[in-house]
Amino acid sequence: AAMVQKYQSPVRVYKHPFELIMAAYERRFPTCPLIPMFVASDTVNEYKSEDEAIHVIERRCKLDIDAPRLLKKIAGVDYVYFVQKNSLNRRERTLHIEAYNETFSNRVIINEHCCYTVHPDNEDWTCFEQSASLDIKSFFGFESTVEKIAMKQYTSNIKKGKEIIEYYLKQLEEEGITFVPRWTPPVACKLESSTSHTRRPVSPAINIPDSATKEGLNNKEILNTSSSPSEPAAGTPDDKLDADYIKRYLGDLTPMQESCLIRLRQWLQETHKGKIPKDEHILRFLRARDFNIDKAREILCQSLTWRKQHQVDYILDTWNPPQVLQDYYAGGWHHHDKDGRPLYVLRLGQMDTKGLVRALGEEALLRYVLSINEEGLRRCEENTKVFGRPISSWTCLVDLEGLNMRHLWRPGVKALLRIIEVVEANYPETLGRLLILRAPRVFPVLWTLVSPFIDDNTRKKFLIYAGNDYQGPGGLLDYIDKEIIPDFLGGECMCEVPEGGLVPKSLYRTAEELENEDIKLWTETIYQSASVFKGAPHEVLIQIVDASSVITWDFDVCKGDIVFNIFHSKRAPQPPKKDSLGAHSITSPGGNNVQLIDKVWQLGRDYSMVESPLICKEGESVQGSHVTRWPGFYILQWKFHSMPACATTNLPRVDDVLASLQVSSHKCKVMYYTEVIGSEDFRGSMTSLESSHSGFSQLSAATTSSSQSHSSSMISR
User: Which of 358, 336, 354, 353 shows the shortest CA–CA distance to 345?
Assistant: First the structure.
C-alpha cells in the first residue's frame, strides 16, 4: 500500500487588499500563459447569490501533464482533468478553492484545498494557504514513478502560484487598476432594481438572502459547507509560519521541506502542551533525518524527554560550572567565522583531559559541554538577528598542539565518546564546520577511535591540518577573518580562552566521591540514597492495596556490605520520631536513614519475613521483585552486614578485626529505586528492565513465584 503524501504550505502574505488579489486571481482563467500545462478550463456550474456576496463557480480544468510519452501511452490518456470549485464570499472576504482529479480517480486520489483570507492584523493585506494530499492506490505498476511526477509537478506549481498573482497585479497596475472597492450590501431603496426581483421585506435585507443563499447552495450541491479536515483552524498568526519568516530566519527550504516543518510543528503543538522547541531547532532534527518526518519526530521526542529529565532548559541560568572547569577547561567562544557562525575555540592539546575527568567525573564534564551547546544555540539565534540571515550552526576550531599519549587515557576517551554521543543525539546539525589544527602523529589513532561515533553528515564538515599547514593556502584565512585569528595561532587577536595546563593532583577525587557526585547530577530524579549504620538499618514502607501487585527494586551498594530483607505487616508502623535518631538524623549528609520497625515488634507476631535475606557485597547492583500475596504494609530493609566469626574456632579472623577497626566500616551506602507494578503490567516492565542491563542481568524466569529473583553486576568503576 502506498503512503499518502501530504503537503501543508506556510502562510503567504500579499501586501495588497483581498479585492485586488481576487481581480488578479480571476485573470488565470480560462487559460494562463504562465502555466503551460493548464491547457483549458470550462465552467460546469455557477451560482451567484442575489446580493452578489456569494459567487460559487465550478470548472473542469484540462492539464497536459509533463510525463514520459510511454507512461501516457500505457495510461491511455493525453490529458488529465481536474475539477476545481471556487467559493468566493465577498462579505467575509474569503475565497476557498477545492480541487480533485477526475481522471484516474479510482487509482489516484488528489485533493487540494486553498484559501485566500484577510490578514488578521491588517485588513489591507491578504493571506494565502494551501494543503493537499496524494494517495496512489495503483497505477499499472508505475506507482512510484507517478508519485515522483506528481510531487515534482506540484512543487513547481506551488512556486509559480506567487509569481502568477504578482504578474497579474502588475498587469492590473499597468492598466491603471490599483484599487477594487469592497462589496457593500445592496440598498433596498433602489426601486428599479427591487421591482425586477422577487419582493422581500425591506428591513432585514441582509439577513434573509444570507440564509436563503445557504439553502440555495445546498440544493445545488455546489458549496460543501462542512469544513474539510485539512482546512487550517482559525488561530492567531503566531501559531502559523509565514513564508517570509521562513526565508529570513530559517533559510531557503523547498516546498516539501517547509511542509514537513509545518506539520511536525503542528503535531508538537497538539501533543506537547508544554514548551515546544524553537522552529530552528525542530528544523535541525528534520535536516538530520533528511526530512523524513517520522524519523525526525522520533529523535526529537527522545531529545525532548531527555531535556525534561535533566532540566537542560535551565542549565544556563542555574548551573555554575565548578572552578576547576573555569580554570582548566581550555575552551571558549571567540567572535564568529566568515559566514557569521559563532566560533568556538578548543585548545584540546593543552587540556589535561585525564586530570579533568579525575577531578570532576564524567558527568560534570558532560554537563559543562551541554551548557556550551546551549550557549551555542543562543548565539546562533543572536547572530541570525545581527547578520540578517539564518545562522543555525557554529564553527569549532580545535587546536591539537601538545596532544600526547596522555590524551588516549581510556576513561578520558570513554568520556569523550559518551559526550559526543549525547551531543549528536540532542544537538543535531549544530556543527557547521570543524577545523582541526596542528594535528600531531598520534592523531590518526585518536581519530579511528572517535570517528565511528560521528554522524556521516557531521564528518563531512571536518577539515584537518597537520603542522603549520593552516597558515598556508586553503587554510584558516579562508574561514576566519584575519583580525580575529587568536594570538596562540600567530594572529593578532587576544583570545580569552583559558590556557589549560595540568590539573593539580590535590584536586583529584576518589572514585567514591565522584560516584556520589555523578549520582547527584544525573539520577536525582529516580534514585534515592540511604546510609546504613551498625544498629541503624534503612527502611522503606510500601503500602499495597491490590493483593497481587509486584514490588520491584533496583539498588547499588556503593559502600560496605549489607543484608537486604523484605517484610510484611498487617498494621502500619508508627512514623519514625526524628529525635530518636540522634546523630543519624534524617538530614545527615550521606543520604537518609529511617527506621520503621518498632523495637517492641516481634518477628513472626507483628511482622513476617517474605523473602530470604540477601547478602550484598560492596559494588554490587541488585534488581529483584516480589509478588505480594496479601494487601497491607511491606517494608524493604537494608541492614549493616557484620562479619561472621570464623566457623571452626569461633574467633574472628584477622582481616575482620582490621576491617572493624576502620571507623568508616560502620557505615554503608546504598542507592535505591523502588516501584510497585500491577501484576498484569509486570511482564513487559521486567523485560524492559532486563534489556536496560544487557549482559548483566540474569533475571530468573520464575518471577511469579515469591522466590527472589535477583541479578548482580559489578559497578563499572
Answer: 336
Task: Give span(s): CATH 2.60.120.680, the chain.
Answer: 526-573+593-642+666-697
**What average pLDDT score do residues 111-128 get?**
95
Q: What is the mean pLDDT of residues 564-585?
A: 69
The helix/strand/coil state of 293 is helix
Task: Please state, as a whole number, how many other Cβ atoms lie within 10 Å of the Cβ of residue 416.
Answer: 21
In this predicted model, which residue has the larger pLDDT, 72 or 331? 331
Spatial contact of 635 and 570, defined as CB atoms under 8 Å apart = no
pLDDT digits (tens, 9 = 90+) for 216-235: 333 333 333 333 333 333 33
What pLDDT score was predicted for residue 517? 65
Please state which of the four CATH numbers 1.20.200.10, 3.40.50.1220, 3.40.190.10, 3.40.525.10 is assigned to the domain occupying 317-506.
3.40.525.10
Q: Are 80 and 65 in contact (CB under 8 A)?
A: yes
Cell 585548545 found at? 347
CA 153 to CA 106: how far, in whole Å?
Answer: 20
Residue ranges matching CATH 3.40.525.10 in the chain? 317-506
Q: 103 near 75, Cβ under 8 Å?
A: no
Q: Is residue 633 over pLDDT 60?
A: yes
What percent of the chain has pLDDT above 70? Answer: 79
Domain 243-310 carries which CATH code? Answer: 1.10.8.20
- In the 8-state DSSP scheme, what is residue 607? B
Closest CA to 463 of 537, 408, 398: 398
Q: Report how far residue 717's alpha carbon sits from residue 694's, in angstroms, rounded to the nearest whole number.
A: 17
How, if at all, do strands 394-399 and 342-346 pair?
parallel
Q: What is the mean pLDDT of residues 130-149?
A: 87
In which band, very low, low, confident or very high, does the pLDDT at 273 lie, cut at 50, 70 and 90? low
pTM: 0.64
The CATH class, in words, for 526-573+593-642+666-697 is mainly beta
Pairing of strands 462-466, 431-439: parallel
Q: Where in the chain is the domain with CATH 1.10.8.20?
A: 243-310
Output the nine-digit C-alpha cell for 127. 493571506
Domain 5-175: CATH architecture, name and number where available: 2-Layer Sandwich (3.30)
- Taking a C-beta distance cutoff of 8 angstroms, is the pair 569, 632 a contact? yes
